[in-house]
Design goal:
The chain is mainly β. It has three domains: 334 residues, Methylamine Dehydrogenase, Chain H (7 Propeller); 204 residues, 6 Propeller (Neuraminidase); 221 residues, no CATH class. Strands 53, 68, 69, 70, 71, 72, 73, 74, 75, 76, 77 and 78 form a twelve-stranded mixed beta sheet that branches. The N terminus is likely disordered.
Length: 1035
């Protein structure tokens, strides 16, 4: 053992055992005893005032019977126990108000007061990320707690922060956030970022209700029961002043970054300021610059006991009742409530050594403190009731002081300041009655320090010589000048324990547990073992070894073995028995204080303050909250669409068994050579299939002509482009081209063709390259059918840039250019993102980023960007792309959006946002009905019947009875005209997975009231005409 290094050695060892080398040496004991005059007598403590008793129903109480200990009585252990989080910094702080902080940490709810006291709730939240939301009075007040873990979100309510948790509901998806709306809660689901509405009282599913119709929603902020600001898909920031009855756009000049409530008003934040919307509807811009008049409040000055006096009381204090403990720090002496950590009473000038560290220990019939400074003096104090300290002894240098557990102390070194001992070590023994004596333990220098000295209650001194290999050790008893050596009798079973006692290190801190019985700890390079020694017989008994890789905390007869996970163990009888305790798993161990200590008040360890020992005050303390019920929303069965159809005949022949061979393309020059220049090296132009389009042969080629074609034969809207001309000729004058596309809803055939148009390319090489026949980069073709079926916007794209062509039946192909005259810089339009209104095309493309949509208007081939609509970041993932629709007979254009289904309904709904054709401004959303048209009468559109025209599939799997034997049907689509409260069908289309075998004997006409159906065989391309009517039984 080494000499003191200038630090104050703990009077009750707080040593964390770990792997250590075996140390045992032969001890040559020579003992001498000499009486020394004591510096001062230890007076028994007196009583004191009753401790503060406060708190709420949600917090477990440590207050036991008896209150303050009566004069002369000594509290040696606090029980029952209470586990509290050791709050460090601002970790876990949710909000600060009225001199307290609401804390959500390590599955616990707590309130940390500015006076250092802390309260916590009795129940635990589940593992995982837990978030708290303060509910407004319109939703019943109190708090909502939600945890997202393992694919679900669990919600609880509580009327107060520490009140018992009442289970609300469990959602089938994790939730990113919960938002308090006007009259319901909104959960944003993690997997889709969609909103889900919940009744705040019952947890039942609700419709999204007063929110503006939208495909998705970004941020939401509700100021009160009437005002809110919502970020809606495509429409941007909207505000309401009438609880969602009407919504209007917030006109702002900068890109919004977030929304919130500032000064009680809805606000839209930007990079440099925010737009505040007051109750009158006025929008005011304000900067984020802080006012010069605003000053930060000064931080609360911490006293000598720090932010958490309770931690100080557990680390270094002693209980003076079952509900309070006394601790000394920085010259002050305080009485701290063990229920909540509040300082009940304080004496600010209790002792002069303000820089010393003081630790409580049993002294005489009461307790006292040993205080020491680094490289400075060591002073012993006795506690003086009601709240004072009386000096007992003082040494000018650091001393090791150990309690014998019975009121007596053992001080390493002479009782005199300048005492000198040769060949050994002196110990100053302070008896419980205050008398002192000095003993000398003489041994070779290499063996000094292995002995453990304990002052017994009967006045004797026990010097323990631990076992070593080949020797069992002994206890030497000193009584006056009498010296008695008692060999240790180690247990023989279990053999593992006997082996650990023989080779382990017998730690400092042995004490008298019972009259004539010593107790202490042995560490054997990992396992720890508690031992008891009968000094009369030398018999040694041992508890079960405790394996603890994280290190146990030992302090006299108290021990805490942390173990792993959420299970630890405690011992209050020196390791003879262990009791398992539950410790919640912490969210973040890195933020915990590294100081660990135990004593009669409790333990501090690993981010926890455990006040007391034994069972908890409440039998169900720290029980996990009851899980909420899983949300059950039964689906209401709607009436699916069913059609009974009759075949009228085939409108197109099947594809030929073998298409005609493609005409071989001869070598042609890459460009026409100049007259005076030498002809360049010829370049091979790739061959083209010159394939038919849907049973329609390609344009006829002359003997000296070459043609190139390409298209999209497998898209929903099939198309093909043809370009041809004489070999080697100037195609700008002699070249021709056209584009064909298919209207799949036309039972009469559906092939549409533009007029033959002049070639926009100068020669065959340029044409082959433009159509994608050449090998220089892949070119993809596609078409967007106007829902009228007579026009299409086609494109050919290379990479991100696309050329667009407006194609109308019988009219020349019209290439589109932007206002700068560029033709190949358009982004690919969205599917169903183009409509033709008169001679004007409207089409929608991505706006250059994932969160923007651009609307274009093209007049006479010149396209200009009309407007840009924003989409909420992330929340628009997985949402249907916006699609353009138009009025069937009028001049209206709109954006069709899909809204989420109501609870219990499978299908969502359609809404249309009318578009101002000149500015691109969006109007109020108009409801067009459910996307499955369930329970909606479907009839054929009448002549002159207007409505929003769109080609679409329906949710709910419509069925078609084609009569007799027929192949399977898929890809059912409807050409609809929709208005609020009405719907009609122009035509229908399906795909047949085989050959239709029930052809009519003669061609029939479609009745005026029947709905035409075009059924196309996928394999042959043959299209059949059918007439259908709704099944009465199914409708």
């Amino acid at each position: 053992m080494t000499e003191p290094d200038g630090r104050l050695y703990a009077p009750i060892p707080r040593w964390t055992p770990g792997a250590s080398p075996l140390f045992a040496a032969a001890l040559l004991l020579g003992a001498s005893a000499a009486a020394c005059g004591g510096r001062a007598a230890v007076a028994p403590p007196g009583g004191g005032p009753a401790s503060r008793d406060g708190g709420g129903a949600a917090q477990p109480s440590l207050t036991g019977p008896g209150g303050r200990a009566a004069q002369g009585a000594l509290v040696t252990m606090v029980t029952p126990s209470l586990l509290l989080p050791d709050l460090v910094g601002e970790r876990g702080v949710v909000a600060s108000e009225a001199g307290a902080k609401r804390v959500l940490i390590d599955r616990m709810r707590a309130i940390a007061h500015d006076d250092g006291s802390i309260e916590r709730a009795a129940d635990l939240l589940p593992s995982g990320q837990v978030t708290a939301l303060k509910l407004p009075t319109r939703l019943g007040g109190g708090y909502l707690f939600y945890a997202s873990n393992r694919g679900s979100a669990q919600l609880w309510r509580a009327p107060a922060w520490l009140a018992p948790l009442a289970p609300l509901v469990q959602l089938s998806s994790e939730a990113n956030e919960i938002i308090a709306g006007f009259d319901r809660l909104y959960a944003r689901l993690s997997h889709s970022h969609r909103l889900f509405a919940i009744d705040a009282q019952t947890g039942a599913a609700m419709p999204l209700g007063p929110l503006p119709p939208a495909s998705s929603y970004g941020q939401l902020a509700f100021a009160d029961g009437w005002r809110a600001v919502v970020e809606a898909d495509l429409r941007g920031m909207l505000v309401t002043f009438d609880a969602g009855a009407t919504w209007r756009a917030v006109e702002i000049d900068a890109r919004p970054t977030s929304v919130g409530i500032i000064g009680g008003d809805p606000a839209v934040m930007t990079a440099n300021g925010f737009y505040s919307v007051d109750a009158r509807g006025s929008v005011t811009y304000r900067t984020l610059e802080a006012s010069d008049d605003v000053q930060e409040l000064p931080a609360r000055v911490q006293g000598p006991f720090g932010r958490r006096p309770l931690r100080a009381a557990v680390e270094d204090g002693w209980p003076d009742s079952s509900a309070t403990a006394v601790v000394a720090r920085g010259g002050a002496l305080a009485r701290v409530s063990l229920r909540d950590g509040a300082v009940v009473d304080v004496a600010t000038d209790a002792y002069p050594e303000r820089e010393a560290t003081c630790h409580a220990l049993r002294t005489g019939a009461s307790f006292g403190f040993v205080c020491g400074e680094r490289e400075g003096p060591t002073t012993l104090y006795a506690f003086q009731p009601p709240l004072g300290m009386r000096r007992l002894m003082r040494f000018d240098k650091p001393r090791f002081v150990s309690s014998s557990g019975n009121g007596a102390l053992v001080i390493r070194g002479s009782c005199e300041e300048d005492g000198d001992v040769r060949d050994g070590r002196a110990y100053c023994i302070v008896a419980a009655d205050g008398g002192t004596r000095e003993i000398h333990v003489r041994a070779p220098a290499s063996d000094v320090g292995v002995e453990r000295v304990v002052a017994l209650a009967d006045g004797r001194v026990a010097v323990l010589s631990p076992p070593r290999p080949g020797a069992s050790g002994q206890v030497t008893l000193l009584k006056g000048s009498d010296v008695t050596a008692v060999p240790l009798v180690l247990p023989t079973k279990p053999r593992s324990t006997a082996r650990e006692l023989q080779r382990g290190m017998w730690l400092e801190g042995f004490e008298e547990r019972e009259p004539g019985v010593l107790g202490g700890w042995v560490e054997a390079g990992g396992p720890i073992v508690g031992v008891r020694i009968d000094v009369k017989s030398g018999a040694v008994s041992a508890g079960a070894p405790r394996q603890d890789a994280t290190g146990a905390i030992l302090s006299g007869r108290f021990a805490l073995s942390l173990g792993e996970g959420e299970r630890a163990a405690e011992s209050t009888d020196g390791g003879m028995t262990w009791r398992t305790i539950e410790v919640p798993e912490r969210d973040d161990d890195t933020a915990a204080s590294r100081t660990r200590a135990c004593g009669p008040v409790g333990c501090v360890f690993k981010g926890w303050i455990r006040v007391g020992w034994g069972k908890t005050a409440l039998p169900d303390d720290l029980a996990e909250a009851k899980p909420p019920p899983v949300l059950q929303t039964p689906l209401r069965a709607g009436s699916p669409i069913g059609m009974r159809c009759e075949a009228l005949g085939a409108s197109t022949p099947p594809l030929p068994d073998r298409p005609p061979a493609a005409r071989a393309a001869r070598d042609v020059p890459t460009a026409r050579p100049a007259r005076a220049a030498a002809r360049p090296q010829a370049k091979e132009t790739p061959a083209s299939a010159w394939a038919p389009f849907r049973n329609t042969p390609p344009p006829a080629l002359g003997a000296d002509e070459i043609g190139f074609d390409n298209g999209a034969p497998y898209d929903i809207v099939t198309m093909r482009a043809y370009a041809w001309g004489k070999r080697g000729a100037d195609w700008a004058r002699a070249g021709r081209w056209l584009i064909r596309f298919d209207d799949r809803f036309d039972p009469e055939g559906g092939v549409r063709s533009s007029g033959v148009s002049a070639s926009p390319w100068s020669d065959e090489a340029s044409a082959a390259e433009a159509l994608g026949v050449a090998t220089h980069g892949a070119a993809s073709w596609g078409a967007y059918l106007d829902p009228g079926g007579r026009a299409a916007l086609t494109h050919v794209c290379r990479g991100a840039g696309c050329n667009l062509f407006a194609v109308s039946e019988g009219l020349p192909v019209l290439p589109l250019r932007d206002s700068a005259g560029r033709a190949g810089n358009f982004l690919r339009p969205f599917p169903n993102g183009a409509v033709r209104l008169g001679e004007t095309w409207f089409f929608a493309t991505p706006g250059g980023s994932y969160d923007a949509v651009a609307l274009w208007r093209a007049d006479l081939g010149i396209a200009r960007q009309l407007a840009t609509y924003s989409r909420p970041g992330r929340t628009s993932y997985g949402v249907d792309p916006p699609r353009l629709v138009r009025r069937a007979l009028g001049g209206g254009v709109g954006l069709l959006i899909s809204t989420a289904p109501d609870p219990g309904v499978r299908a969502g709904s359609w809404h249309v946002l009318p578009i101002d054709r000149d500015t691109g401004a969006l109007g109020e959303a108009l409801p067009l009905g459910r996307k499955d048209l369930a329970d909606t009468p479907l009839d054929r559109c009448l002549p002159g019947q207007d409505g929003w025209l769109l080609d679409t599939g329906l949710e709910g799997s419509p069925s078609f009875d084609l009569g007799g034997s027929y192949p399977s049907v898929d890809g059912a689509e409807f050409r609809l005209r929709l208005d609020p409260g009405s719907a009609c069908v122009e035509a229908m289309s399906v795909r047949l997975q085989g050959t239709f075998s029930k052809a009519p004997e003669k061609q029939l006409d479609i009745a005026a009231d029947a709905i035409p159906l075009a059924a196309t065989e996928r394999a042959t391309g043959r299209r059949w005409r059918l007439r259908c009517e709704p099944k009465d039984a199914a409708r």
